[in-house]
C-alpha cells in the first residue's frame, strides 16, 4: 500500500515562514550560513536578565503576497525507511498550495487531491532529459520529475503542473519527509486533538482511543497517513483529507496558543528544529528570513486562516479519480488576485421582493400574533469538503 505522509502539519509554521526573492547576496548568505558551526546554549544559562529591547525579525517580503507549494515526500531511505519501511522510488501524495496575503492578515491552504485527473505538462530534469506531457493522476507529476533521482526535479515538475493548471505563480516550495514532520510536531510538544471515535490501522501503526489526546510526532504521522482501518471512514484519499486538515487546524491553534510567532528567541529555536529533513528553494534555508515572515503573521486572526480542498467531482471514466469543478477556477483566480477565497466562493445575495402593503385593519380587532419561525440551524463546515478555519471548529476539544 502506498503511504501518505503529511506535509500539512508543517504548512502553517514552516510554509507561512517561507520567503522568496533571494538575491545574489541572500544566496551567498545561505551558502556561508551552511559553513558555520553553531551551538545554542540557551538551555544551559538558567535564569537570565530580562531583555528590554528584543529585536524583532524583519519580513524580507513585506507588502508582497506569497504562494508556497508544500509537498510531502514518501522517499523511504535512511531515517525515513526506519519510520515507514523501505520502498524504492519517490512518491508524494500530499500537496498544498499555501497563500499568504500581502497585508499578512490572511492565510489560505488549498489541498490538491492526489487522484485528481489532470494534464501534466512536459517537465525538464537536471540530467538533461524531458518527460512527455500526459493526462494522469496529479501525484504522478512528482514521480515523473524524480526519474532523475533528484527530489528537486520532482518538486519542479509538481510546481510546473500546478502553475499550468491554476495560472498561479509559485514563489517558493518545500518538500517535507517523514522525519521532518515528526521533528516539527515534537518541537511543538505534541498536538492536542479530539479523537471522536477509536481509530486503529495496523498498516499505519495507529491505535488511538476516543477522547482528548496529545499526538506526538510519530502518532501524528500515523494519524495523517492512515487510510484504512477502524474509525477511518470509507478508506478513500478524499475522505482522509478532512482528517488531515483537522490536524493542520489543530497545529495552527497550538502555534497561536503558545505565542510562538511573537517570541523571537522561541521562534528561531522552533524553526531550527522544524526545518530539519526538508528540501527547499534557497531562500527557505535562511532562518532569519523564515523567522521574519513568520513573525509578520503573529496578528493573523484565527478566522482568517482557511483550509479547503480543490472543489472536485467524480471522473466518469474512472471512479478512483476526480476532476476539478468550475469552482476550482474561482479558487485559483482569487489566489492569483490576492482576494479572500471564502468571499470569492460565497453565493451572490438574493434580493427579496418588495413586501406587499397590508390592507387596512379594524383597530378594534385584537392583534394576531405572527407565527414563530425557528431559525435554521447553522451547520458546522465539514473539513475536507467545506472551507473552514480554526474559528469555525475546535479540533482540539471533544464535545
UniProtKB/TrEMBL annotation:
<feature type="compositionally biased region" description="Pro residues">
    <location>
        <begin position="355"/>
        <end position="380"/>
    </location>
</feature>
<dbReference type="Pfam" id="PF03816">
    <property type="entry name" value="LytR_cpsA_psr"/>
</dbReference>
<protein>
    <submittedName>
        <fullName>Transcriptional regulator</fullName>
    </submittedName>
</protein>
<comment type="similarity">
    <text>Belongs to the LytR/CpsA/Psr (LCP) family.</text>
</comment>
<feature type="region of interest" description="Disordered">
    <location>
        <begin position="345"/>
        <end position="399"/>
    </location>
</feature>
<feature type="signal peptide">
    <location>
        <begin position="1"/>
        <end position="28"/>
    </location>
</feature>
<dbReference type="InterPro" id="IPR004474">
    <property type="entry name" value="LytR_CpsA_psr"/>
</dbReference>
<dbReference type="InterPro" id="IPR050922">
    <property type="entry name" value="LytR/CpsA/Psr_CW_biosynth"/>
</dbReference>
<keyword id="KW-0732">Signal</keyword>
<feature type="domain" description="Cell envelope-related transcriptional attenuator">
    <location>
        <begin position="91"/>
        <end position="255"/>
    </location>
</feature>
Amino acid at each position: 500500500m502506498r503511504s501518505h505522509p503529511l506535509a500539512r502539519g508543517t504548512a502553517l509554521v514552516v510554509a507561512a515562514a517561507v520567503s522568496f526573492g533571494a538575491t545574489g547576496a541572500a544566496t551567498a548568505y545561505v551558502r556561508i550560513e551552511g559553513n558555520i558551526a553553531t551551538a545554542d546554549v540557551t538551555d544551559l544559562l538558567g535564569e537570565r536578565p530580562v531583555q528590554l529591547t528584543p529585536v524583532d525579525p524583519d519580513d524580507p517580503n513585506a507588502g508582497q503576497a506569497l504562494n508556497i507549494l508544500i509537498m510531502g515526500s514518501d522517499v523511504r531511505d535512511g531515517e525515513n525507511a526506519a519510520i515507514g519501511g523501505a520502498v524504492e522510488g519517490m512518491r508524494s501524495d500530499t500537496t498544498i498550495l499555501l497563500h499568504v496575503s500581502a497585508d499578512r492578515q490572511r492565510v489560505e491552504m488549498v489541498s490538491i487531491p492526489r487522484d485528481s485527473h489532470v494534464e501534466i505538462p512536459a517537465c525538464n530534469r537536471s540530467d538533461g532529459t524531458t518527460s512527455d506531457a500526459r493526462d494522469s493522476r496529479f501525484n504522478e507529476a512528482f514521480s515523473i520529475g524524480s526519474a532523475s533521482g533528484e527530489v528537486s526535479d520532482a518538486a519542479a515538475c509538481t510546481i510546473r503542473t500546478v502553475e499550468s493548471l491554476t495560472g498561479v505563480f509559485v514563489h517558493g516550495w518545500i518538500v517535507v519527509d517523514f522525519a521532518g514532520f515528526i521533528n516539527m510536531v515534537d518541537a511543538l510538544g505534541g498536538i492536542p486533538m479530539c479523537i471522536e471515535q477509536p481509530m486503529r490501522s495496523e498498516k499505519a501503526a495507529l491505535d488511538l482511543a476516543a477522547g482528548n489526546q496529545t499526538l506526538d510526532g510519530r502518532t501524528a504521522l500515523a494519524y495523517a497517513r492512515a487510510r484504512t482501518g477502524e474509525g477511518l471512514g470509507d478508506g478513500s484519499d478524499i475522505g482522509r483529507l478532512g482528517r488531515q486538515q483537522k490536524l493542520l487546524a489543530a497545529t495552527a491553534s497550538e502555534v497561536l496558543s503558545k505565542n510562538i510567532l511573537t517570541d523571537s528567541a522561541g521562534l528561531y529555536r522552533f524553526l531550527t528544529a522544524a526545518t530539519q529533513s526538508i528540501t527547499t528553494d534557497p531562500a527557505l534555508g535562511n532562518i532569519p528570513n523564515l523567522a521574519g515572515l513568520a513573525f509578520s503573521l503573529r496578528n493573523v486572526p484565527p478566522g482568517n486562516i482557511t483550509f479547503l480542498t480543490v472543489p472536485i467531482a467524480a471522473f466518469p471514466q474512472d471512479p478512483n479519480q476526480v476532476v476539478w469543478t468550475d469552482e476550482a477556477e474561482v479558487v485559483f483566480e482569487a489566489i492569483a488576485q490576492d482576494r479572500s477565497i471564502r468571499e470569492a466562493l460565497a453565493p451572490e445575495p438574493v434580493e427579496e421582493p418588495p413586501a406587499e402593503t397590508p390592507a387596512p385593519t379594524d383597530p378594534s380587532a385584537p392583534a394576531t400574533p405572527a407565527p414563530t419561525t425557528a431559525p435554521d440551524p447553522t451547520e458546522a463546515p465539514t473539513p475536507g469538503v467545506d472551507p473552514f478555519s480554526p474559528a469555525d471548529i475546535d479540533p482540539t476539544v471533544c464535545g
